[in-house]
Structure formats: C-alpha cells, structure tokens
Amino acid sequence: MKTRLYTPGPTPVPEGVMLRMARPIIHHRTEEFKNAFAEVNENLQYLFCTEEPVLTLTSSGTGGMEAALANTLCRGEEVITVNGGKFGERWGEIATAYGLVNRQIDVEWGTAVTVEMIRERLVSYPNARAICLTHSETSTGVFTDIKEIASAVRDEFDGLIIVDGITAVGAHEMRFDEWGIDVAVTGSQKGLMIPPGLAFITLSKRAWDAAEKSDLPSFYFDLKRARVAYEKGDTAWTPAVTLVLGLREALAMIRSEGREQVWRRHARLAAGLRSGLTALGFELFGAPPSNAVTSVLLPEGGSSFEKVMKQKYGITMAGGQEALKGKIFRVSHLGYYDDGDMLTFLHYVERTMSDLELTFEAGAGVSAAQQTFTSLLAEELPTS
Amino acid sequence: MKTRLYTPGPTPVPEGVMLRMARPIIHHRTEEFKNAFAEVNENLQYLFCTEEPVLTLTSSGTGGMEAALANTLCRGEEVITVNGGKFGERWGEIATAYGLVNRQIDVEWGTAVTVEMIRERLVSYPNARAICLTHSETSTGVFTDIKEIASAVRDEFDGLIIVDGITAVGAHEMRFDEWGIDVAVTGSQKGLMIPPGLAFITLSKRAWDAAEKSDLPSFYFDLKRARVAYEKGDTAWTPAVTLVLGLREALAMIRSEGREQVWRRHARLAAGLRSGLTALGFELFGAPPSNAVTSVLLPEGGSSFEKVMKQKYGITMAGGQEALKGKIFRVSHLGYYDDGDMLTFLHYVERTMSDLELTFEAGAGVSAAQQTFTSLLAEELPTS
What CATH number has the domain bearing residue B189? Predict the structure, then answer.
C-alpha cells in the first residue's frame, strides 16, 4: 500500500531533498556549507519579502516563537495575544513564562481576530509593547489577515507586530517589509518542505532596536549573537547541517516556481479540496480558511473516519487538538502538494465514506474539485 | 577524490543511518514514531548508564547546556565553572546570561581541572549550588576525570554536578547513576553518529528536585514539560523526526557492539593515532587526552598543513579555536571510525609532510599505530 502524509507538519519532503540530505555529511565551517547557507539566506529573504536577515535556528518553530519574545521585550511589559487556537494560545504561554503580562484576546476557536478587537485592546492597554498574531492557526485551520491588521494599526501603534507564520510562510502571501511587520517566524517542516528541526525568524529595524533594550535572559536563542554569526555567513551554534542542505534544494524549487505562484497554488489546492469535501456533504470548520490546512467536521457516524483512512488506505491526516479532539479532522495542503494529491485524497474519502455507509453522491468530490482547479487555473486567482 | 571527515562534530554518519533518514517522512504522533522513540529512549539510558529518562531536545548541544542551568538553578545562585577551553567557558557564559554568579576556575587551556582545584573552590564558595564540568573539552582535546571528581566531592557537596558530555558520551565511560552525576548533556552529531540537530539531557533525582525550585524562565527548554511528554512516549514540541529515526539505527549499532566495547574502541583509536603522530615527529597538545579528539601542535613549516590535507587529499579536520587558532589541529576519532580510518589519516599525513618537505621516517606513523592497535586488541584495554 502506498502511504501518504496529509498532516500540516511534518509535510511531505520532495524526493530530491531527501536524497540530498542522504549524501555524506559535511562540516559547517567549510566553503561548501557557507555557499549553501548564503543561497538559503537569500532565498529565505525572497520568500519573506524582506531585506532583513532571516536567521536560522536549530529548533522547532516554538523555539523561534520563544526567540521572538525573549529578545525584544522587557520583564513586566504587556503584550497582546490572541487565543483562537492552540498556537495563538502559545504566545500567551511563552509571555507568561518570561514574566510578561499577557493581555489576551479570547476568540472562539474556529474564528479569526478582527481589526476592531485589536483596536479595542490597544485602547484598553495603551502600554502594550507587542501584538502577537497567528497568520495561519494550524489547530483550527483559520487564517488571520495580517496585512489588513498591520495596515490598520501600524500608524497608531509604535510597539511590535509579531507574527507566527509557521504554517503560513509559503502558503500565504507574506510581505514582511511592505506590511510593516516587526517579527515573523516559521518552521522547516511546513511550507519549506523539509523535515522538522529548523526555525526561521526575521526582525524589522524597530524589532532590532527593541532587542537592544530587552532584559530577558537568552543564550541559545540570543538573536543578537545569531545576527553576528549571520553577518559572517555562519550560525551561532552548530546548525542542523543536513536540514540546511536539504533546504537549499527546497528553496530552489520555490524560487523556480516563483513565490506568487506558490501562494496561488496553495490557494487553488485549498479551494479545490474545500469544494470537493463540501460536494461530498462535509461541513467545513473555521473561517476564514487557511490555505495551509483545511479543518472539517467529522460527519455523523464517522467516528472511525480517520482510522479507516489510515489503516485501510494509508492516508495520515491530523485530528482535532484539545477541545476539538474527536470533532474535526484536518487535511494539509501545505508545501509539496499539487492538484493530483487533492484528488487522491478525495478518492480515498469517498471510499472511506462508502466503507462507513455514509451517504454521498459518487464522484461528486473529485468532480467539484476538478472544476474548481480548472476555473482557478484559468483566472489565475489573485494571491490573498 | 574520496573525501573524509575527521572533525569532532559533525562526525561521519553511517550509510545505513543516512539511508534510513532518506525514507519518506512520517508524522511524530503515530505508532510508528512512538515505537522508534521508545527504542531510542531505552538505548539512550543504556548508553548513559542511567535509569532516569534521557530527554531529547531539538537543538544543538548548547541548547542542552542551557536547559541544564535554566531548569535547575535560581537567579543569583553561585555556580562553579571551569574555563579550560571554549566549551568549559560556555558554562560560564550561560550562567552569566541567566543572572547566576559565575565562580570560574581558570585552568590553562590544554590542561584539566583537578580534584584539588574543585575542593578549594568549594571551600571559597560554600554556597555554590552547582559545579559545571566538561568531560571531553573539544577545543583542546583534554579529558576531565568526572568519575574521580564526582567520587571525591559527592559526599561533601549537596549541590549539582553538571556535566557537558557532548563529545564524551559514546567515547568515554559515563556511568551517570553510579558516579552520582546530576545532569549530563550530549549532542547528536558526536558519539551518536547522526547529523547535528538533537541534544540529550538526563537529570538525577536531586536535579529534578532542584528543578521544582528553579525560578529561571524557560519554555522551549522547559524540562518539566519535556518530561511530561516523555512519560507519554512523546516530545513537548515537534521533534526533528528524521534525526530521531536515524538515531534509532545508530543506537542499535552501539547496542549491538556493546557500550563497553565502543568505549574501548575509542580508547584504542585514540592511542593508535597518538602513537602514529608521535612516531612521525608531531608533538601532541593537551593532557590528559580525550578519546574523542586528538589535538596536535602544527609543526614548524606546517602552516599550510590543514590546507594541503583538505585540498589535495580530501581530509577535513578541525583547526584550533580562539587562542589556539593557527597553533594546533584537531583530529576526530569520535563515533563511526575504526582502525583503518586512523591508518588512512596517517597515510595522508605522511604524504602531506612529504609535500611540505617536513622531515619524517617513512612508514613510521602507520607502523606505530598498527603496533598500538595490535597490542591493545590483545590486552583488551580496560575502559577509563
């Protein structure tokens, strides 16, 4: 049986990347590595749409999130976070761990924070030094419009706009410099298509100024130290060498496809999958939807849906987390996927529905998806 | 040209491990991963000689060192560190970053701290809560006798004995429980024979008690959180999945060879290499020597020694760091090496000496090494 991964991290790793990583290991203080790292750095800037350095940390994305707060804030400062899912909640947990005051906005899981909510919170807490957002909330599949929020509050807010872009970078447009974001973080096993083990973070000039004043302790994740090394084409600590070399290949693929086209592809796959699932009678969960992952309510009589997909058809997807456990399943279209992968997924969904004796119109899923793909390919969906 | 890596991290990765890591990636919240992780955990305990959990962190070894201090100490507490090289110095840097008071012992780089020095320091600073040691100081190639120090001070010192075992675990005997150590750290790209990206840390009951009282901020490296996940067969954050799966293979190799035999092999390779280099007229640097890496003074007229070895013969080794830059070179025999690899190295040393018109007796290096190997294989060198 062919096995297929539809989880929002790890995401599938392209074959060429896997083989590159299987070559004999090299030392990181060599010309060969430095050349690879220089290319990686340039392509990361391209993907983030920034002139600022994008620093590579050997950690999961959570390490990058910790680095974002620990380097730019001072003990006792207030930060605004948004708990609309497990990853938004994490900003607050990190803030609390570092003795920051967490002015959390609670939004119903499955919905996104609005500009109005952020504005209200800024009025209530005028001393807040940072707003921490989640571009694509992986636990709910909800998209937050960072561009709109940044545009709305940038002029009136002189603190930091900090963005968890862990499942957004590569899936959604992200114009770091143009939008006026101060810190953005992503991880390796997401839109970057390599295995987990690296996090990436970029800071605006405003964020670097804040870093000069920060009094929170930091060593492994000390970004000033990381930047000094970066300027020399190096990392502060031994990097995950094989992952960096794999990343070089993966970023070359992204560069070759073009970032705008990569964003369009993600929008198209997401839309096609959603139309296919809807045509089969599924109800989607969460709005507005992320282009990285689609959350779907488990149907009545579908409690063994994930199990059948996995055991009978080799399809691994993600379940719901915490309060959403047993209520939703999540399907990734983040990274190394194309239209065919979505049709394949819908094929096994139909077979599983049949196994579970659920009601559906045969062929409706793939047909709806195909029509969506065709129409979007024709009109070249504008990136959002 | 065949290229060969003789650096003390990254060290060569066995072919079977590389190929395992090149297989399609799996999700970490699956039975398949949990089974692999359980085997890894058991074999890490075997290698550390401990019944305590050995926690896996996705970071370089430095992240493990930071976790060691940040989880077990309180702001303003005194720690004794030993600056006898770049990595010993790092303990002090981390301590300072976290607002601990660094009661540093300065020893000449190339020498080891003695029991007497530690005792004196404990008398001068009776409030010290931790002694931070470096089992194998990678920057100088010097071994510190942790067993002897722990045995000497354990009864009189109720603080923590914290050991950087980054280039020691797998190369030197390490009996965590029996010796009364409280924290030990290692990294993946060393004796464990996989690429960089993972750190490992184990804590004694005394250290876990200290962790309950610690008031230093910690999130990504929060070991209490890591332990909760560990008890469920999981990690707190997304682990570097491919590295963990590679580690399973590497640890199976170590288990199959037997830890005592792995330690003996490292002692034998180190002794053989040293005798070969000495027979060729080289002067060794640092004592007592580590079984992981051998430091050698660059000979007169040998300033391009490393360059010729690399460019003409494909041999990558490590130079000196900081004050030792341009004075020494360092050769790794840590991890996936055997006697033949040492003879190969000595062969290219002779050729390079010849290229540089240095004086030596032809064949003396490999002959001396071979005799050492034969005699040690015969007497089955006791582990040290």
Answer: 3.40.640.10
